[in-house]
Backbone:
């Protein structure tokens, strides 16, 4: 594992799409340094030749028949939307008019 | 009469409903009244709809009167952790992010409970997005432990355990990702089961860590959780990790299996950090099994000390990915601050998520990020393989394992909130079962001198819930811890 345990909090918060306050950045950096220090105990384990487990049991692709079914009605799909117009989700402008 | 109904088991109520001695409306009304009187102190619920529950109870009574009762759960009120979708009901995960969210459809678990005829009584408080061990991370309010209102009920299904202990519910549903059913069950003196991974469908369960999440029942006694498991278990094509195995009659098998069993004590679960009173109570339970003719042997799960570290890498990595869906676009909290679409993500998430959720998203994002993936995430997945192998090896020697559920009884509110690592270590005896996918149950096995409940955990082989429940039931038959109630 890498020597340094200091998280580049600005970089990681950007990856996670989280706007953090300066206080949160300071707090999380300190707390996560402790947690990372703790999890580095995994370095003690010899994992040579060990297969990683993504699940507890082997998970295989599940095929299903292509059967038409009734999807969630538009109204239900939109019922929790923060902003709706003409059966569509309204979002802030994505593309600049150049 | 009414409090007596509230503290009855599902099994008893089911028999009395069948005999016509009581109606579903009477039971439901008793719970509503009891909840009104104690809920201001316990705060186990995020949402209650008494009218809706009474309407369902009335419908159940009408079915029964018409000779169309659907089975042992028809007319029984069940309260559900606010993490499972139930059409038309709020689904908040105790988060500001989903404060106003109403489920457009039923989860498979709710669908099956409805089919069994249950009355859905309220939504139960939890740590936000099931991240926590004390229910202090609820964005709305903490839940108190009914045995000592200054203490936490455990978590993340703290509402599910506290409502039951306080007589506000007769049985509840929780979810268990690292101990979130078993640990609160232990701390509140009730029975809680985490089934084998894949036994219960996750369709409509809000995802935290998908390879670890499993829905599980909590009840006053082993028979109750067995009946509830039977109702919610089974293959579901809508969850690709749901396993297509037969669903036995868990309650009948748990009654029929008598032992004696070969039971293992993992020596790593009885080391430093185990509270002396918890140790004494668990050792006394072990003596009971020995007296019953069970062979007790020490086993080793040598990678136990790495389980918490492995869990917090795997779970946070999965969480960072699962929670990416909360972007303020289609549902959930949307920030008013945002000036463009990308900004919308940053601010909606910053405003909608609480501290622990943010902390875990940051950690999970970090361990998956370029340059760190192999060192943290891949390594943790490999250690996970070794943890599974430890259990496989142990189960070659024994039928099941006996351990404490939690190293300590319920701690005081606020005691660990500033130290995430100390909070994470509360799950030290429960977390491995999630990594290995095996079933486990926590049952009451005593009280501390100051009157706090202590839990015994039975861990079993994959899909051997019947065996685990039978072992737990054998103890329960000759002990009355589970029949005690807190003074409220």
Residues:
């Amino acid at each position: 594992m890498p020597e340094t345990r200091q998280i580049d909090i600005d970089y990681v918060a950007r990856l996670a799409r989280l706007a953090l306050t300066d206080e949160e950045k300071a707090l999380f950096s300190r707390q996560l340094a402790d947690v990372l220090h703790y999890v580095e105990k995994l370095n003690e384990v010899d994992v040579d030749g060990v297969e990683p487990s993504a699940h507890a049991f082997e998970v295989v692709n599940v095929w299903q028949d292509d059967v038409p079914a009734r999807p969630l009605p538009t109204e239900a799909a939109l019922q929790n939307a923060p902003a709706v117009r003409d059966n569509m989700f309204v979002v802030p402008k994505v593309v600049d008019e150049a | 009469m009414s409090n007596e109904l509230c503290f009855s088991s599902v099994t008893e109520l089911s028999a009395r409903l069948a005999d016509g001695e009581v109606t579903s409306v009477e039971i439901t009304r008793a719970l509503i009244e009891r909840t009104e009187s104690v809920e201001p102190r316990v705060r186990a619920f995020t949402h209650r709809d008494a009218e809706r529950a009474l309407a369902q109870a009335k419908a159940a009574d009408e079915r029964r009167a018409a000779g169309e009762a659907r089975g042992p759960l028809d007319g029984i009120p069940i309260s559900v952790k606010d993490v499972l979708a139930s059409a038309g009901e709020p689904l908040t995960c105790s988060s500001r992010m989903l404060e106003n969210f109403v489920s457009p459809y039923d989860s498979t678990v709710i669908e099956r409970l409805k089919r069994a005829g249950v009355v859905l009584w309220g939504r139960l408080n939890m740590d936000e997005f099931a991240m926590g061990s004390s229910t202090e991370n609820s964005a709305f309010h903490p839940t108190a432990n009914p045995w000592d209102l200054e203490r936490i009920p455990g978590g993340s299904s703290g509402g599910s355990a506290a409502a039951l202990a306080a007589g506000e519910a007769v049985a509840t549903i929780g979810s268990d990702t690292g101990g979130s059913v078993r640990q609160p069950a232990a701390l509140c003196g009730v029975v809680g089961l985490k089934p084998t991974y894949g036994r219960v469908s996750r369709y409509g369960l809000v995802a935290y860590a998908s390879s670890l999440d499993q829905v599980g029942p909590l009840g006053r006694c082993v028979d109750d959780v067995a009946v509830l498991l039977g109702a919610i278990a089974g293959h579901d094509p809508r969850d690709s990790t749901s396993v297509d195995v037969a669903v036995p009659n868990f309650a009948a098998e748990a009654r029929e299996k008598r032992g004696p069993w070969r039971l293992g004590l993992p020596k790593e679960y009885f080391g430093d950090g185990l509270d002396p009173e918890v140790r004494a109570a668990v050792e006394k339970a072990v003596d009971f099994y020995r007296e019953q003719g069970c062979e007790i042997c020490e086993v080793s799960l040598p990678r136990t000390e790495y389980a918490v570290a492995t869990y917090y890498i795997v779970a946070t990595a999965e969480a960072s990915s699962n929670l990416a869906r909360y972007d303020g676009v289609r549902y959930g909290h949307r920030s008013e601050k945002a000036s463009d679409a990308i900004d919308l993500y940053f601010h909606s998430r910053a405003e909608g998520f609480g501290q622990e959720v943010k902390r875990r998203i940051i950690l999970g994002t970090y361990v998956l990020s370029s340059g760190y993936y192999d060192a943290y995430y891949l390594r943790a997945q490999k250690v996970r393989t070794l943890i599974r192998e430890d259990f496989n090896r142990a189960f070659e020697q024994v039928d099941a394992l006996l351990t404490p559920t939690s190293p300590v009884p319920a701690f005081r509110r606020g005691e660990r909130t500033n130290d995430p690592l100390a909070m994470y270590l509360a799950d030290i005896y429960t977390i491995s079962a999630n990594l290995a996918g095996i079933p486990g149950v926590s049952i009451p096995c005593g009280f501390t001198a100051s009157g706090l409940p202590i839990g015994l955990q039975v861990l079993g082989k994959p899909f051997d819930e019947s065996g685990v429940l039978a072992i737990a039931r054998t103890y329960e038959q000759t002990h009355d811890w589970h029949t005690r109630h807190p003074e409220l």
Notes: Chain A touches chain B through 54 residues (CB under 8 Å). The helical segments of chain A are 9-15, 22-39, 74-78. The first strand of chain A starts at residue 84 and ends at 85.
